[in-house]
Amino acid sequence: MSFLNAVHLTSLEFGLILLVIILATVLIRSRRTVIQPAETVGQAIDFDGLKEWVKESESICETLSKNLQEKRKIAKRVVAQLDGKIEQMNELLNRLNEKGPPPPEEGKSKDVHSLIIEMADSGCHVSQIARWLRISEGEVQLVLDLKKFGHPEAPQSQVGITRV
């Protein structure tokens, strides 16, 4: 991991790097104040512990960076899938709006049965017709079955079960 390439660092990675630098500075200053000047003459300060911490911090930063990259990839895939679903839903909505019943004209009253038949002839599904007309799917299916078997449509008050 290059510390000079700070353009692509996330705030978490940048914060960890800053924390390591501050920790190193504090440790160096604390060691200088503890060690007496007479003792340091001719002796090198032991930075092995500090180097281990820096290496460990770098490995943690690299691990976090890899995890963040994986999370970004997953997030991009999820966003792409959601965009696809939204497009599909918009297409379905547009098709439903196109196939919907014509707006009611004043002076021309159509009964529900003829609307059901017209919508079915235009390619609408039973559930779509039921939603548009706000009636049950069973009623829509009954009207379509009556038309299919050639029975004349009866007004809603005359529809009933008859014995033969």
Q: What brief labels describe this structure?
A:
rod-shaped; mainly alpha; 164 residues; Arc Repressor Mutant, subunit A; 2 domains; 6 helices
Structure described in brief:
By secondary structure, the chain is mostly helical. It has six helices and no strands. It has two domains: 6-72; 100-164, Orthogonal Bundle (Arc Repressor Mutant, subunit A).
**Content-based structural category:** mainly alpha
Number of strands: 0
What's the N-to-C terminus distance?
88 Å
Rounded Rg: 38 Å
Overall mean confidence score, pLDDT: 77
Name the shape in a single word.
Answer: rod-shaped
Low-confidence stretches: 154-164
Oligomer: single chain
The helix/strand order is HHHHHH
In total, the number of domains comes to 2
Task: Note the total helix count.
Answer: 6
Biggest β-sheet: count, sense, barrel?
none
Strand content: under 5%
Helical content (DSSP H or I, runs of 4+): 55-70%
Characterization of the model:
With 164 residues, the chain is mostly helical. The protein folds into two domains: 67 residues; 65 residues, Arc Repressor Mutant, subunit A (Orthogonal Bundle), CATH 1.10.10. It has six helices and no strands. The C terminus is likely disordered.
